[in-house]
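Quick review question:
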């Protein structure tokens, strides 16, 4: 399936289920998966924009999730002169089993000038849609909510025609912090559920499955503009079953998600969780069709899909069908 096929928002008949996981998951955990399958190979982009994007970000002393999380789409996105800004440092106070971002219980203080530099970089890159994510900062009373809101304010000031997407942590479960972020009125609020309920304690460090659903539902209920969309994402290939993914999609639908992304988990280093299965493109299509069939308006699914991958195109598709 081509990624752009997920932009079709019309309900479709669910495909026949595909058993992509072994009968005994423990056997697959102990067995080497071998080389990447053909659908996980891609050509490197060409052109000058990739280097220009990297140089600009370096000159502004900014971090991106593209680099820190070893995103497989980094070269493609940078060649398009787009990147996902990672704010509040590059050290997270959590140590999730899937993520390659560095962890620290005492990360450096917040950089008060960072919001301005993010906004200037977004303007210099000519971004029509600016995606900002964050490390978890449980060492800060509001989890960094006020800092995130300031980033949005600076983008609005320096690049007023740009739309904004925020991908946040659960901010410690604080409704006051949630309200601070919602008051910034991003066009898309994104908080990933990451995996199915049974795998959450192993995959995520402090965040819980139910707190994520609570935050998404709270956002849907308390959003301050009717044009704000609620988004979440799942990784597959961690040992989940198809029925568990379907159940998670039901939970996200009931929480009010307008957009759900599903992508293949890839192990970033040898210390992180093993890949249990390389999910074929046909199964991603199955998940996309199922999500639409139960009423999730926009499903974006594929092996290389990540929360912020082609986020500008996803927003364009969402607004065109609203």
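Suggested answer, residue by residue:
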């Amino acid at each position: 399936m081509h990624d752009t096929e997920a932009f079709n928002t019309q309900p479709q008949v669910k495909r026949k289920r595909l058993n992509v996981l072994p009968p005994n998951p423990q056997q697959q955990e102990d067995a080497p998966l071998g080389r990447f399958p053909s659908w996980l190979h891609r050509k490197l982009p060409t052109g000058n924009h990739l280097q220009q994007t990297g140089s600009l970000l370096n000159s502004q002393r900014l971090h991106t999730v593209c680099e820190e999380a070893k995103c497989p789409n980094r070269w493609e996105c940078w060649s398009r002169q787009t990147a996902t800004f990672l704010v509040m440092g590059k050290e997270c106070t959590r140590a999730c089993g899937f993520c390659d971002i560095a962890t620290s219980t005492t990360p450096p203080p917040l950089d008060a000038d960072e919001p301005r530099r993010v906004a200037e970089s977004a303007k210099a890159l000519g971004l029509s849609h600016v995606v900002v994510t964050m490390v978890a900062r449980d060492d800060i009373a509001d989890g960094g909510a006020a800092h995130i809101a300031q980033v949005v304010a600076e983008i609005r000031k320096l690049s007023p025609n740009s739309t904004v997407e925020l991908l946040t942590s659960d901010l410690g479960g604080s409704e006051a912090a949630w309200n601070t972020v919602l008051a910034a009125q991003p066009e898309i609020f994104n908080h990933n559920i990451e995996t199915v309920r049974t795998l959450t304690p192993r995959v995520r460090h402090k965040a819980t499955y139910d707190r994520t659903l609570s935050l998404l539902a709270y956002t849907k209920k308390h959003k301050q503009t009717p044009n704000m969309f609620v988004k979440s994402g799942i990784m597959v290939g961690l040992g989940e079953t198809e029925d568990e993914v379907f159940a998670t999609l039901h939970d996200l639908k009931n929480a009010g998600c307008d957009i759900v992304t599903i992508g293949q988990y890839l192990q970033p280093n040898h210390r992180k969780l093993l890949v249990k299965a390389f999910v074929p493109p046909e199964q991603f299509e199955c998940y996309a069709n199922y999500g639409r069939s139960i009423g999730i308006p926009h499903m974006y699914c594929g092996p290389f899909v990540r929360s912020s991958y082609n986020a500008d195109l996803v927003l364009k598709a969402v607004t065109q069908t609203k």
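Why it works: The beta strands are 63-64, 84-87, 91-92, 102-103, 129-134, 163-167, 188-190, 229-236, 259-264, 298-301. The first helix runs from residue 25 to 30.
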